[in-house]
Design a protein that fits this description.
Blueprint: H1 2-21, E1 28-40, E2 49-61, E3 66-69, E4 72-78, E5 87-102, E6 107-118, E7 126-137, E8 144-155, E9 163-173
């Protein structure tokens, strides 16, 4: 867990330092929102596990390429489908960094790293880290985007084992 936090901190600091070197007038606050779904173990031998959530990402874009943000999510964690209580409502708050490459035809390819921890005391508390690739479409209204990535979930207690989940998101940039 300390390695993940160290990597995330180094990435954020690198993004801030690189953006600070480029004194560009394209810096501004930005805000995105997305619906995301993570899943693993979806076959009959094991019960399925997944996370469905809504995330808002207030942040600051230093230039056309670099941004930092604070993901705040409200999640529904789906647990063992064979149990009587098979979900936990939970949320995370954390830090993230993104790098965006603007391409032809008003599209952008982005890469992001985020990490966060639960903020509600519940049956399941955890650390969550995500690496994702995003494709955004600047020519369609409020810049919708799709994202695919990988999420690592580390529970704070031994209620369940560590999970690596495939994640997809659909969202839009508000400003």
């Amino acid at each position: 867990m300390k390695r993940i936090l160290t990597i995330l901190t180094a990435t954020l600091m690198g993004a801030v330092c690189m953006a600070a070197q480029e004194n560009n007038s394209s810096s501004h606050y930005h805000f995105t929102a997305d619906f995301n779904m993570s899943a693993s173990e979806y076959y009959k031998a094991k019960p399925n596990f997944g996370i469905f959530g809504f995330t808002i990402n207030p942040g600051y874009r230093f230039n056309e390429n670099w941004a930092i943000f604070m993901p705040v999510s409200a999640d529904m964690v789906l647990l063992n489908r064979r149990s009587t209580r098979n979900y936990v409502e939970q949320g995370t708050i954390g830090l993230g960094a993104a790098y965006q490459i603007n391409m032809k035809d008003h599209a952008a390819l982005g890469f992001s790293l985020t990490g966060g921890s639960t903020y509600i005391k519940a049956d399941l508390n955890y650390f969550k880290a995500k690496a994702a690739v995003t494709l955004g479409f600047h020519n369609l209204g409020r810049t919708p985007y799709v994202s695919i990535g990988c999420t690592y979930m580390k529970p704070y207690y031994n209620t369940i084992e560590d999970k690596v989940l495939f994640e997809c998101s659909i969202g839009f940039t508000i400003f």
